[in-house]
Amino acid sequence: MHEPLTVGAAAAQSGWSARMLRYLEEAGLVLPRRTPAGYRLYGLAELNRLRTVRDLRRRFGVELTELAFARRLWRERDLREAVDAWLAAADDATSWVEWEQRKHERLLAA
Amino acid sequence: MHEPLTVGAAAAQSGWSARMLRYLEEAGLVLPRRTPAGYRLYGLAELNRLRTVRDLRRRFGVELTELAFARRLWRERDLREAVDAWLAAADDATSWVEWEQRKHERLLAA
DNA sequence: AGAACCTTATCACGTTCGTGTGAAGGTCAA
DNA sequence: TTGACCTTCACACGAACGTGATAAGGTTCT
């Protein structure tokens, strides 16, 4: 019933193109298993991740590189610590609000 | 002694160009205060952030957009939760190692 | 064997990022 | 007032991203 899908079927079922499934693999975002002959196999887990990535882009406008970076943050402790330190220092809420407001105005002017 | 620096001085002292200091502000990464006439003022905090961003790029190859995304992750809870959910599901250490290895080989072939 | 898949690799193309350069004009100190 | 700063704005340009198309060849099913 839930046989793993080959790339074309997974594409049709997920809304991505086959090309993009390969690209997503190269970017490290969704890693299918392989058949002995090298065919990509997408199981339920992978199909789910495909859907999640799609949602993250649609709902939050997240770029693929940014997701890859989130994965790096998750896996590389010293990187995460360095970024955290920067964030803690950089986030003074005072100047921030005005800046956000100016950004908004810039967007409206387009 | 520690007077806030104007953009050119801050540039000279931090290793960035004045252009990039303005770009970093627009990207929301380092937000200087302003003099009544509109001049940017970089105090110790800002100079520190400039150094930190520089280090993050040098040591980890972090892109500016990625840092901006880290800031988003920090500030938007629902985004952070969605990404976390995806990471938890996506990170099966088994297929990962082989993939990392292939990536390495790809880089060596260049 | 042939059709319909799959593989990797390449070219192409529009968009964004990161950065420099320059124009047109405001600010400030000697 | 003049020179050296600063401001915003815009043009340019290489590199990378995201995506499609296409070629040359392997696999699988009937």
CATH architecture heading of the largest domain in chain A:
Orthogonal Bundle
The number of helical runs of chain A is: 6
Instruction: Outline the low-pLDDT stretches of chain A.
Output: none
Q: End-to-end distance of chain A, in Å? A: 51 Å
What oligomeric state is this? homodimer
- CATH classification class of the largest domain in chain A: Mainly Alpha
What is the average per-residue confidence, as pLDDT of chain A, rounded to a whole number? Answer: 91
- Name the shape of chain A in a single word: elongated
Main beta-sheet annotation of chain A: 2 strands, antiparallel
Mind explaining what this structure looks like?
The structure is a homodimer of 110-residue chains. Chain A has 110 residues and is mainly alpha-helical. The first copy, chain A, has two domains: 1-75, Orthogonal Bundle (Multidrug-efflux Transporter Regulator, Chain: A, Domain 2); 76-110, no CATH class. Chain A contains six helices and two strands; from the N terminus they run H-H-E-E-H-H-H-H. Chain A has a two-stranded antiparallel sheet. The longest helix of chain A is centred in the middle third of the chain and has 17 residues, at 44-60. The mean pLDDT of chain A is 91. The interface between A and B is large, with 41 and 41 residues. Chain B binds a DNA duplex (30 and 30 nucleotides) through residues 6-8, 17-20, 22-23, 27, 35, 37-40, 63-65.
Layout of secondary structure:
2 copies of one chain form a homodimer.
Chain A: H1 7-14, H2 18-26, E1 33-34, E2 40-41, H3 44-60, H4 64-75, H5 77-90, H6 93-108
Antiparallel strand pairs in A: 1-2
Helix pairs in contact in A: 1-2, 4-5
Chain B binds a DNA duplex (30 and 30 nucleotides) through helix 2.
